[in-house]
Specification:
Chains A, B: This is Pyridoxamine 5'-phosphate oxidase family protein. Chains A, B: InterPro entries: Pyridox_Oxase-rel, Split_barrel_FMN-bd. 2 copies of one chain form a homodimer. The first copy, chain A, has helices spanning about 30-40, 80, 130-145, 155-160, 220-225; strands at about 30, 45-50, 55-60, 65, 70-75, 90-105, 110-125, 165-170, 170-180, 195-205, 210. With about 230 residues, chain A is of the alpha+beta class. Chain A has one domain (about 15-200): Electron Transport, Fmn-binding Protein, Chain A (Pnp Oxidase, Chain A, Roll), CATH 2.30.110.10. In chain A, strands 1, 2, 3, 4, 5, 6, 7, 8, 9 and 10 form a 10-stranded antiparallel sheet that branches. The relative contact order of chain A is 0.19. At the A-B interface, strand 2, strand 3, strand 6, strand 7 and helix 3 of A face strand 2, strand 3, strand 6, strand 7 and helix 3 of B.
Chain lengths: ~230, ~230
C-alpha cells in the first residue's frame, strides 16, 4: 500500500486457534488474495462485539484499504462510543458472507449452501488522524460503488465531526468456502429425489434517479457498468 | 402454532434497552408480522456468541417455527458444544439482513443502503426432544426451499446423532429498515452529481442437476416456481 505506512504483507495469514475451524477444516483458507477477493466483492458485514457480557451482531458497511478494514457510524452509536482512542479498543468479530448456491441433496442431512465467507477477529480502534479518516470514508463509499467517492460532495466539517471511524487490521483472518455439487451418500444415488445446485445471484435493477436531479445530470459510467 | 405448545403471541414484541437503537429509532419496529416477514424471506443468519470473552460471528442456516428459531450444526462444532441441555444455555445474538438498494446521495455523508434486518437477542438451548428436533430440521431445510423437506430422505439414526439443534425463542427482537430515496441536504440539490437508488435483487439461475440423478427424475414444481 502506498501512502498508508503499511509493510508489504506475507502471502498467507497465520492460522490461530480461533481461525482454525473444528469441523470441515478443508474448507478454510488463509490465503491473502482469497480473503481480499471475498471482502472486495461485498460491502456489508456483520460486526459482532460484546456488551454487558452478551453478544451483539449488527449489519454495517465496511471498506478495505490494504490490510485495514474500516467501518463508520454516528459518534452517538453504542459500539463506536466504546472505542475512543484513549480506550484499549473494542474486541470485535467482523464477518462477510456471499451465498453462491442452494445445495439440494437427496438426503435432508446433506442439504447445504455454497458460500464464501471471511471472518476477521481483532481489536477495533477509533481513527483520529484526519487524513486516514478521509481515506477510510472514501473507501467505505467506494466499496459499495467503485469510483463513487470522487463523484460526490466530500464530507464537510460538521459531517466529519458527527462521524466516528473505526479500524480493524487484517491479522487474524480466515476465509471459508463450500463449492461444487451435492455430497450424497453412495447408497442414496438411486433415490427418486431431484438433486443439484440452484445458483444464487446478486443483481442490480435499473437505477432510479432522484426526482430533483440537477438539469442535464446523466447516469455516470460506473453505474452503467455496475447495472448492465 | 399447533402442536408446539406455544401460547398465542401478542401483536408486538416488547422493546428492551438493547432492542431500542441509539440512533435512527424511527427505523426500528417491534411488529411481529414485520419481523416474521423479514425472517421468512431469508435462510442465512449471522450468529454471534462470546468465546473466551471475545465475540464470534458465524454465518449459518436457520429455520423459523412460530416464535422459535432453530439452527443446527455438527455435535463437534464449538458453539454447539457449549449448549448442552445441562448447561444454562448460550447467550447469542442472531441477525438476518436483506439488502434492497444502494442509496447514492449527492453528498458522500448521506450515502446509505436500503435494507431490512432483524436482530434477536436471547439464550440458545440445545433441543433434545426427538419430535421437536425433527420439526426443527425440517424447518431449516424448508426455510431454504419451501416444500423441500417432504421431498428428500429424512435423517437416519446415525445422521441425527451427529446433529445438534439449538433453539432461540423470539422474545427480545427488533426489526430495522431503511427504505425510500436519497436524503440529501436541501442546499446540495443543485450539485451536478447523479443521485438515486440502485435496487439490489437476489435471483436464482437455472438449477444444475446432479449428473447421477435417477432416471426419469424431473425438476420438482417448487423449484420451477422458485427459479422462474
Amino acid at each position: 500500500m502506498q501512502g498508508t505506512g503499511q509493510a508489504a504483507p506475507q502471502a498467507d495469514y497465520a492460522p490461530t486457534d480461533r481461525t482454525v475451524p473444528t469441523r470441515a477444516p478443508q474448507r478454510a483458507s488463509y490465503d491473502r488474495e482469497t480473503v481480499h477477493a471475498i471482502l472486495d466483492e461485498g460491502y456489508l458485514c456483520h460486526l459482532g462485539f460484546v456488551r454487558d457480557g452478551a453478544p451483539v451482531v449488527l449489519p454495517t458497511l465496511y471498506g478495505r484499504v490494504g490490510e485495514r478494514l474500516y467501518v463508520h457510524g454516528s459518534t452517538g452509536s453504542r459500539p463506536l462510543r466504546m472505542t475512543g482512542a484513549a480506550d484499549p479498543g473494542l474486541p470485535v468479530c467482523l464477518t462477510v458472507t456471499h451465498v453462491d448456491g442452494l445445495v439440494l441433496a437427496r438426503s435432508a442431512f446433506h442439504h447445504s449452501i455454497n458460500y464464501r465467507s471471511v471472518v476477521v477477529h481483532g481489536v477495533a480502534h477509533e481513527v483520529t488522524d484526519p487524513e486516514e479518516r478521509r481515506v477510510a470514508l472514501d473507501a467505505i463509499v467506494d466499496q459499495v460503488v467503485p469510483g463513487r467517492s470522487a463523484d460526490s460532495r466530500p464530507a464537510n466539517r460538521k459531517e466529519l465531526a458527527a462521524t466516528a471511524v473505526i479500524r480493524l487490521d487484517l491479522e487474524e483472518v480466515s476465509a471459508k468456502a463450500r463449492t461444487g455439487g451435492v455430497g450424497d451418500e453412495p447408497e442414496d444415488l438411486t433415490l427418486p429425489y431431484w438433486a443439484g445446485v440452484v445458483p444464487v445471484q446478486k443483481t442490480y435493477a435499473a437505477p432510479l434517479a432522484d426526482p430533483d436531479l440537477a438539469p442535464g445530470t446523466e447516469l455516470p459510467g460506473y453505474l452503467t457498468e455496475l447495472t448492465k
